[in-house]
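Let us practice reading a record.
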Amino acid sequence: MQVTETLSEGLKREFKVVVEAAELNTRLDAKLDEIKGQVQLKGFRPGKVPKAHLKKTYGKSVMGDVIQETVGETSQKAIEEKNLKPALQPNIELEGDVEPVIEGTADLAYKLTFEIMPDFDLPDFSSLKLTRPVVEVSDEEIDEALGRMAAQQQSYEPKDDKAKADEGDRLTIDFLGKIDGVPFDGGAAEGASLVIGSGQFIPGFEEQLKGAKKGDEVLVKVTFPEEYGAENLAGKDAEFDVTVQEVAGPAETKIDDEFAKQMGLESLDALKEALKGRMGEDYARISRSRVKRSLLDELDGITDFELPPTMLEQELEQIIQQAQSEKAHSAEDYDPEHDHDHDHSDVEITDEERDEYKTIAGRRVRLGLLLSEVGSRNEITVTQEEVNRAIAEQARNYPGQEQQVFQFYTQNQQAQAQLRAPLFEDKVVDYILELAKVTDEKVTREALLEDPDAPAEDAVDAKDDKPKKKKAAAKKKTATKKKDAKKKDD
């Protein structure tokens, strides 16, 4: 095998590889020896077919396999001998007429083209200074959560027979709906529960039952919304004959040990502790996301190296496709029922947007290569056990279909790789955070939950009340980070 470098420009590399016909024929003979015992030809006993006859009968087809295997082996060997690390799958292009090569009379020549991974130094992570926002769960928050739980467990007590229904009361009713005096399908029920003010029924229905008492018969007149799900009812005027069977008012829900037992805990203190723990975990997850975002911003600002052009272009195209899809989905005439596998490539992307997306693509590729190198140099890996736990988490999102989810991932290595990638990234981020100087800063719950990408309101000058021209630049900066955060930040 002869390997000649024909291009070395930036990260681009190109080689011409030549494998002599003699080597191909040697490989062909070895291949024919392999199949000799498997071939059955008329007039010959199994395993006794002369090699010359085999070559005449199967030579060309077997040589095709030999060429394919040879190209795979020699291209890999050529790359390894040059001690190069391709960024993406190399491109291979055969040169010259392939027919003489198949006949075994000409050398095999092909062009090997690829881009290599950039060589760069890792930053000094110990010099990084980051702030991690943290929130302590307050007693007030726990009380608020208990109040919401109590509201969800709201019970009702029947009112006096002469009591009038009011906002928040639960009515038990029978009703029969009609359009133009004719009952319609789905418009009748007996013993239905309706809480006034809950918005359970179509607009205008509940309000007309305010003041009704047990035993009252009320004629409710409403108009179905134009966007109502049933086309035969949308926009139609309707009348409902309603009979009130019971009026019940909200009963006080005592938040005590008995309430906690209804929630599955042994005491109110245990319930409060469980709520505090769950809320603390939620805050910790958001806090980690924020410090991770800060870390990636810092790394993006202090690293700069050449990026593989094809890798950058592929990332850019992916971002553009996502943007086109989002634009199509937000269009007024978007029809989700006819969007399956639809190509949105005709959606316009402006030059300004393309430049912005290119910046995002560069950030993603650069940070991806940086984190990958950190993981490689420090032997950071994701175990199969960790992947299995991630699969289990995915399965929990599909109650009743857990077995199908497990089967999908166990039979699909690419799907497993999609789970493995964020796990690896998080482990690398944790490794870097251990080296960096991270200071905890206590903040309010509102500050922690605030969208970091929301554009700041226009600054107002105290003297003339005129907005300062900061918003446009802020919008562009935050938009770039926001789109990037969808993929990189969690």
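A brief commentary: The domain at 2-115 is CATH 3.30.70.1050 (Alpha-Beta Plaits).
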